[in-house]
Amino acid sequence: MKNMTSKRKPSNLIYGLDDVIPLPILLLLGLQHSFHVTTALIFAMIVLQGMGASPAQASFFVSMSLLVAGIAVILQALNRKGIGSGYFAPSVCEPAYIPASLMAAQIGGLPLVLGMTALSGIFELALSGFVHRLRRIFTPEVMGMVVAMVGISVIPVTARNFLGIEGNNAQINPTVLMVSMITLGTMVSITVWSRGKLRLFSVIIGMITGYVVSFQAGLLPAAHLRQILDKPLMAVPDLSLLHWSFDASLILPFLIASLCTSVKTIGNLTTCQKISDADWKRPDMPNIRRGLLADGMSISISGLLGGMGQSTSSSNIGLSLGTGATSRVIAFAMGGILISMAFFPRFVEIFVVMPKPVMGATPLFAVCFIIFTGFQIMMSRMMDARKIFILGISMIFGLSTMALPNVYSQIQNPWIRPLFGSSLYLATILAIVLTIIFQIGLKKKMDLDLEPGKTGSLEIRDLLEKQGSLWGARQVVIGQAATALNELMELIFFLSLTEKAVHLEMIFDEFNLDLALRYDGKPLAIVGEYVAPSSVDAELSITQLSLHLIRKSADRLTVSEKNGQQRILLHFDH
Q1: Per the CB 3.0–4.6 Å rule, which of 146, 175, 316, 317 could disulfide with 90?
Q2: What is the pLDDT of residue 330?
Q3: What element of type H or E holds 518?
Q4: What angle do CA 417, 423, 424 make, to 5 degrees?
Q5: What is the pLDDT of residue 1?
Q6: Beta-strand relationship, 445-450 and 556-562
Q7: Domain extents in the chain
Q8: Is 502 helix (H, G, I), strand (E, B) or coil?
Q9: What is the pLDDT of residue 527?
């Protein structure tokens, strides 16, 4: 396992990325996340209902989905031989696959769902090979938007369960609502007001509370308890149900699902990087490439073994942040539990009969963290009109699929209809297309002349902030650059190094910001460290102080001369 201990643990975490967790706590955390994964089985049940699956098919599909989820979380945490990000990023039944899987289920049943799912994983595997070249498209703003939309897209299902709404009936069930509020209130109260390590288990305590209160309120009937006991304690999934088929007309819907899943995974892994490193600056694309490879493998494995399309879970990542435990070792405990669950039908049935209040409150708890983590990633870069339109248009039309479902249901073209059947699909595709369009005419280099003694600090700051917004630079870096440049211009004027204009060349990419100044005149002498001024060397001390402030803001200051022209370079790591 690759050592990533150079990352500084954020203060809000109890167990950081590389922290060792005591075995009892580790098992409870693994169990809690496993419970949370089972809430996503509702997406598998939607697909099963769409195909009119038999009880045997349903049991097989759910068991194999849990088995693959266990394999996937371990693959993602391994970070060996170029596979896996090395972060705790569990996988669940992916809601982005619901529209495409329902189409496959209605046309060819379970074999077609499995075959097309296995095929779609290959697309993500291919994408992982050149994702590092797509940084200009998969920007932090786009990835943050996708993370936020993942949380937003599950609100309708979550809210219906939370309120106890059945079918097309808009009537709220007061009993379900009461139990949902008790369940969610338990989770939130422990998270906000508890002390010590109790916060780690806020969700599992809340879920247990939800089951108990649901039973007392009649929402978990005795028939469901008998349903659990009627299942065998241990059983091997029936592999005779494992068949695959393919349909060329479904390639595009599954490719769209895979693309959305890929962008979501990029966003989720970016979230993992951000919440695990107090000094996070930008997405680590080589790490994301390894994570995409593991995610694509998990999707194909799921199709080959008989499960639903799997992908990294924003909810579980939000849960790990909410509980303050992001250690990767949880992945191995969780993976073992999920794999074991696939062979214990009675245990799995506990989650199949999960009461609606628990199915509503648990995702809602995690969605709070998912949405606002997405917003934080979006706002980690300076905004200009281009980015505002990219995010605004994408989110508005994405949300419109939930607000105006009857309008988009009129689209009959089977190739594009899945695009308008999901808020996540539509928002993701729009964000990518608009990002490509708005790259037109956007230069990463800017030249202008500055007048020593005339170009003031406010003018310099406005200039850099405007350009930084166009490029999507980090605001803190632009602030440091403005401070250093202003100090340098004042020093050039104070020392009378030139009477002519200073030419500024500003160059930016995702990793570097360089301010190169050229002028005709005397060179800037880089003197030693700053010392307190005296009556004899006051001028030298002022120069030392200015250089000290410049070096404090810039990551590197170099002075050179070429063809009789002086050149000063201010470099900033971005």
Answers
A1: 316
A2: 95
A3: strand 512-519
A4: 100
A5: 44
A6: unpaired
A7: 23-233+251-438, 445-573
A8: strand
A9: 63
